[in-house]
Amino acid sequence: MKKKLNKTIIATCLILVFPFIACDDYMEVSPYGSVSEETLATKAGVTNLLTGAYSLIDGVNGSFFWGDNSNWLFSDMASHEATRGSTSNANITFFEAHTILPTHEYVEKKWDGCYDGIQRANDVLRILPKVSEKELPAGEATQIKAEAMFIRGLLHYELAKTWKNVPYIDETVIYNSDYLVPNTDRVYPKIEADFQFAADNLAATKSDAGRANSWAAKSFLAVVQMQQGKYSEALPLLTDIVTNGVTASGDKYALVPNYWDNFKASTENNSESVFAVQYTVNDGASGINGNQGRLLGQPVVPPCAGGGSSTVSFSTVNAFKTDPGTGLPLPDTYNDSDITNDMGLAESAPFTPYTGTLDPRLDLTVGRRDIPLLDWGLMRRSWGPNQLERGCYVLKKFFFYKADLDVNTESFGGWTTINNINYCFIRFADILLRAAECEVETGSLAKAEQYVNMVRARAADPVGWVKTYLDNDPSRGFTDTPAANYFVGLYNGQFTANGQAYARKAVRFERRLELACEGHRFFDLQRWDNGTGYMADELNAVIAHERTTPATFPALQNAVFTKGRNEIYPIPQAQIDLSMKDEESVLVQNPNY
Amino acid sequence: MKKIDESGDLIKGLRKMMLMMKLTTFLLLVFVMHLSASVYSQRTKLSIDMRGQSIKEVLQTIESQTDFRFIYENEKVNLDSKVNLQVEQKSVEDILKMLFVDRGIQYSITRNNLILINPSGELPAMVQQPKTINGKVTDSSGIPLPGVTVVIQGTTQGTISGADGSYFLANVPADATLVFSFVGMRTQEIPVAGKTSINVMMDEETIGLEEVVAVGYGTQRKKDITGAVAIVDVQSMKSIPTGSAIKALQGQASGVNIISNGAPGSSSQIFIRGIGSFGDTRPLVLVDGVESNLDNINSNEIESIQVLKDAGAASIYGVRGSNGVIIVTTKRGKAGTMSVSYDAYASVQMPFGGNPLNMANTEEYAKIWSVAFPSEGSFANGVPDYMYRSPGSPAQWAFSGDPAVDPSKYNFDDGDANNNYIISKVSKPGTNWYQEIFDPALSQNHNVTVNGGTEKSRYLFSVNYLDENGALIKTFNKRYSARVNTDFNIGKNIRIGENAYLYYINRNGYSNSGEYNAITNCVRAPSYVPVYDISGMKYSATFNSPIVGNFKNPVAVQELQKNNRNLSWTMVGNVYAEIDFLKHFTLRTSYGGSITGSYSVGFGFKPYWDTEGFASNNSLSETSGYDKYQIWTNTLYYKNIFGKHRINGLLGSETIKYDGRSVTGSRQDYYSQDFNYLLLQNGSSTIDNSSSAYDNRLFSLFGRIDYSFNDKYLLGVSVRRDGSSKFGPNKRYGIFPSVSLGWQVSEEAFMKGVDWLDNLKIRGSYGVLGNQSNISTGNAFSSFTSNMDNSYYDIAGTNNSSQIGFYQGTIGNLDTSWEKDIVTNIGFDMAILGRKIEISAEYYKKSIEGLLFSEPLPAVVGGAAAPTINIGDIQNTGFDISGIFRGKIGNELSFTISPNITTYNNKVVSIPGTAGYFDTGSTRIGNLVRNQQGHPVSSFFGYDVIGLFQSPDDVAASPTQSQAGPGQFKYRNVDGDEEISPDDRTFIGNPNPDFTYGINLALKYGNLDFSAMIYGSQGNEVVNFLKWYNYYTSWYHNGISRDLLNAWSAENPTSTIPAVLGSTSFSENSVPNSWYVEDGSFLKLRSVVIGYSLPDRLLQPIAVQKLRFYVQAENLFQITNYSGLDPEVPGSSSNFGIDFGNYPNNHRKFIVGVNLTF
What are the C-alpha distances in Å from B1131 to residues A325, B248, B280, B1137? Predict the structure, then answer.
């Protein structure tokens, strides 16, 4: 009996305990489909991490275009260059009505997208030191480091110009550290330091057109300095860039003869492209890596649907009027009357476009009735938005040639078409006008005029103008006949003759024309405002004009740009709530929000 | 027949009764066969001419000429007396009368042609004349019950019922009382009172204290249970005909909340005693000891269901037990004659009538539109007759006669949607989109079960076919299943067996959340749009147009998914072996699990009718994968009774592994949309493929001891140690103990005198449970990955390619530990007035500590997925009360009313660290839900509407509010400052009910049965998000609610419906506010059944034991204030109760069914 008992007990224990013995290995399950930080400490690992960081310089992670760093919302809409007009998307309305609340979803999206990219750049900087020198020579490591710092600087600059008071996040800020960094320290010096390091260490030419080179870093450094009003520091830098700068591919910086070459997939990354987001389609990502930011602004030309979200304002169009005598812009009187438009005119009704003199850049920026819309045909009423609400102008920049359909476009999300046209953070025309601006503020007015004239000369060159169709058939190409009465004149000593105020106004207006709807104006106004109320005055005047147009623009009906508040955006409420330390948030809300 | 631990018990019990039978003279009668005696005895005519012969000789003659056989006892009856008998063509009965009546000999004829001769020599006084009584015993469902003991009260005289449930008892005094008893059934005492036939229905003794029920890893006498265990009345649950046992369980057990939508084959949200987790709240469902999905099990196959609600009962399941445990035992084979049953029903589901979504018709639409956009002009000249869209232009209006809508211009180009010239005739009466996509739907269910065996081997085999169709067109769920359960005894001490359930499911699925489903589109679609364009074949909506909104044609949404399939094949079950040794020990090993193979195919047609994306390519995607789950359980049981002590103990180990992989591929741009052409390789663009995998494991040791002293004092102790591969090495193991106590008060001497109290037990428990369902396998690890969408970049500037980029995908956290539920339970069970009333009530407090949830991190940490951490605490408190009231009216009408009610009070106790809250419930107007300390889980958060602004003065006098205007909402100024800002947002609703309840009513009258089931929920609130679509008019034409006809205006200032605006507004619909929140309380008459069982005399000739027909109606009525279709709106645990076009679960259904056993 006892023997039997023993046997039984042994058998029982074996059965109960057997799985336990196997247990330690049994419980170790490593995750599927991913690699650890250690595995990435190789040359290929950090190179790929860097590419991952580049993929977020547009602020768009996956499929979310609201916070896009081309700032179609944060600048174009908010500075009334463009308009949604309608209130059918309330979240856009708030940008135009200047009633953005700290809980605004898109404001949060931009914030999130930028810090997401910053931490990707920091990942490169964190893992880079773990790569052995044998595998990655010091020189190459420095290039990778400098590119990562460039990206970090770029995204912090996006944050700084949008919110001003933001935390600066370097590679020491990680999940397992005290990551609650306050937003009360000045962030610009650190951004400058990032760009300075990149400028000092990056090579002038790079293996890939999309990489930052030393001149791109210098350009950003100058931009950041200017945004702080440090014109005298920026000027020599800009002069150097204008004189010696080259693109990552080694082309000397220059304006391309044809303005539109900056907005065409096959001609981008040219000598004018200082630094751009490289968009791509048909790469297997279903259009997600295309130009999402400008997706909603495309004309409603089938197969592009659901767009028309970004309509160009009447004021922006009027700004392109030129003096019939001198061919110069009319900064003081441009908005006295609207150019002829087709408001309320049926699709089939005859229409004669405006016959007064115009800057040809108008028709390179805006789609208007009966003017060729690239190779799609003469712009029709139905390609635009609901006129009653939103006016009659569509945005043409960032739209693609019909001939590029499927080659440079891809069906997107089942409802529209996306293209791969790059967004230039900085193009050389911008550099020239910035140099002019610095010259006006601290240097020579004559030199400033010279820079402005370089930009205007290109506009004046008929090679880049919109022409009529051969036999009125869009598929046959273009004649040599300009599509409208284009006339651009150069300044001829007016800067010096009329003094700094005149020159300043001329440079600023030139930026408005040359860089219209490219995501700059809101931040230009912010720089020029500098506490003076200039920005509020400018924008409230535009709002007032838009209200006088035949379009109802419901979003603008109660819009007021409030001085001392709307120059920067509210810190996202959710981020404030998530940054509590000792019952108080380390993030302080911006004034008057 | 209720759960019996080992089927051996039953055999033993039967044997004992057999012994008793030997005392009677009627042993021969036990297994009677089927012919109707009365019929035969009437029909059979005899001619006899016998003179001077004994009765015995006469009887022998009758036997020789007929099938009748006589049975009598020689010593008790004298059959030697001589008689003369001359009859011509007389029935046997007539002959017998002549023979016996004057001689004081009683007789009776049984169905099987036995003629019994009364043993009593003396004739008793007439009033006391003993009778022969026969009848039939059935269970409550009408199935004949063999083996029931029938005894004349106060004697040892009795019988047991035969295989067809019939019994025969002779020589019963007319004033006697018959006692019917059977294991697991309530004993019945029935006075004879002059009757000769007594049919008895035995009720299952659901609370029978000796009853043994399945609990964690074993069984327990109900009497000994100290934890909170709800025993489901399976019989009443089965009256809800649905393919899903979960749906049928709604309202059947206190403490169990089930929220279902009506889509065929959809799974339900289920939680026990409130929401105890921000993630998965589903309880552990063990079917025969193996984790299974109750959604896919037919109620017919279920023998019993117990719900373990507190730690005392569930903590033996440790980490898997925190959401409660549902223990399901399926039917098993029973020793005895083979029985075959067939159960079937056919049903028709009826859509609601009329205009249930209250949408404006075309005329009303035009009226409201003109208020919103006085100058827009769509309807300036009345409602146009046509809409058309020519190539390159958006759609436009036209009136009859306009050359633009000449039918000859109509063109449909399958290759290039841009060439289409589509013309649609405006629907003047208005399209009722709801009615277009809902049709009466037929469903059917067939189940055949064969069951039988011997003492040594028993089997149950069943096959089931379910064909369930939803009233929403093209929604279906077909299931083919088979179950084989067998048990074998090897020698005296070894038992082996298996349970196997195989099923195949084919369904097309319905996405119940989000705004793209067909029901939401019924609200988004304007009524003037016809279903088809003028071709009569192509769906209308005239793409690329502001005039028809951005909805999707609801009919197209449903019709065009007709080829979509979600198929799965599952085998689930286990094999086990048990060995008894050393008298008190049993060792059991069980290996089981499930493996599911799945395959789905979906084809997206070219959406030529769609405003957005009309030119999109068609696309095909196919997905296939497997999910595997293995469980190996070893348990050692100890059982001993000595003196007044009763001890049950168990020790066990368990190894569990879950793993699976899946692969998916898709392509676009198929030349043909013919389903047979659609293979992946035929798609010409957007080639995409991916795969996924998971693997996680558990290893556990556990033990339990139950001790009872003198059947009065009960103690249960259990402990489990679980290890999970989901946690970091230092936090891998968790220990989950519990203790429970019980006091059988009614057993105490001082209670013996209390006659009305049959039973009173007080019990309580305290213990810890765990949860790990909301944590992913790799949570402890920081990992990097790559993704085309997120991290690839065209660094070389090629325009048409991108290079691989890495990014951090997840942030790891090694400190994350177990979610722990600390549960306290106090309750009592009481039976009074001869068990006519039984009540169980419990109070519980469930504190969930260290809730697992994704850590809300500020953006500065980066975009990597935050780790799951132990984020906070939730507390649920409440009462579970259930009762049974039994009664009889007269002799024939018996009834049972079983109500149950569950209350819970849910509160987030803490969310430590950062904000003290997190938001979820994302919609087009932002997050609707905030989970915050001090508030119930999933609370709605937003601006509180206190009324409508009545005038510009009113606006001016109120705090500054963005876009405020007359007729728009006035928000409550919560913070008291000068303006309405985000600080004025507050809690505006709670989707958690105050209580839910179910009432089952069962009536029986003769062969008629009636049952009804009521389910209700009180105090839950619902966000009717459909209002966002149809109360909001924008430049895009969307569907419009009829309510807007009565909207606020200066002329209609008393209206509470906000003014019609042509745009969204902060002061109206563009932010979460209390206007969307509605009272979602409801009471539903879920089911009414009337059944009729055919009487035996009709069934006998056709060898049928039971034949019952029934008719049933579901959802005959509902009481609710909710304005949408159905306030019962599921969701996820941290955000539910938001109606985005929920498939209603309250369509009426009419059913006819049959239950047949032979």
Answer: 69, 19, 11, 6
Asked whether the beta carbons of residue B655 and residue A35 sit closer than 8 angstroms, the reply is no
Q: Is A389 an interface residue toward B (CB < 8 Å)?
A: yes
Tell if the CB–CB gap between A5 and B697 is shorter than 8 Å: no
* Model confidence, pTM: 0.78
For A392-438, what is each residue's pLDDT tens digit?
Answer: 999 999 999 999 998 999 888 767 889 999 999 999 999 999 999 99
Tokens representing B1043 are 């309510």
| Helices A105-127 and A90-97: angle between axes, nearest 10 degrees | 90
> CA–CA separation, B597 vs B660, rounded Å?
10
Tell me, letter by letter, the H, E, C secondary structure of B263-296: CCCCCCEEEECCCCCCCCCCCEEEECCEECCHHH
| Helix, strand counts (H, E) of chain A | 18, 12
B408 is written with which tokens? 């000859």
Helix extents (H) in B643-793? 788-791
List pLDDT tens digits, range A457-495.
999 999 999 999 999 899 999 999 999 999 999 999 999
Cβ distance B138 to B165 under 8 Å? yes
The two structure tokens encoding residue B402: 């306009």
Interface touch B800/A420, C-beta < 8 Å: yes
Q: Please give the single-letter amino acid code of residue A104.
A: H
Give B795-823 pLDDT, tens digit per residue.
999 999 999 999 999 999 988 988 888 99
Rg (CA), chain B: 36
What separation, in Å, do the N-terminal and C-terminal C-alpha atoms of chain A show?
86
Q: What is the ipTM of this complex?
A: 0.94
Mean pLDDT of B618-639: 93
Interface probe for B, chosen from A60, A87, A170, A180 (most Cβ of B below 10 Å), is A87
DSSP string, B332-362: ---SEEEEEEEEEEEEEEEPPPS-TT-B--H
Q: Looking at chain A from residue 426 to 455, which residues have their Cβ under 8 Å from any Cβ of chain B? A: none
Whether B777 and A32 lie within 8 Å, measured CB to CB: yes
Q: What pLDDT score was predicted for residue B365?
A: 92
Contact call for A51 and B544, based on CB within 8 A: no
Local structure of A482: helix, strand or coil: strand
Q: Which residue of A has its CA nearest to B609?
A: A415
What chain B residue is nearest to A105 in terms of C-alpha separation?
Answer: B926
Q: How far is the C-alpha of B35 from the C-alpha of B41, rounded, in Å?
A: 10
What is the tens place of the pLDDT at every residue in B152-166? 887 777 787 877 788
Q: Between chains, do B793 and A52 touch, taking CB under 8 Å as contact?
A: yes
* Rounded Cα gap, residues B310 and B288, in angstroms: 20
pLDDT in tens, B1128-1157: 888 776 667 888 888 898 999 999 999 998
pLDDT, mean of residues B905-916 = 78
- According to DSSP, the β-strands at B325-330 and B284-287 are parallel
Q: How many Å lie between the alpha carbon of A155 and the closest alpha carbon of chain B?
A: 12
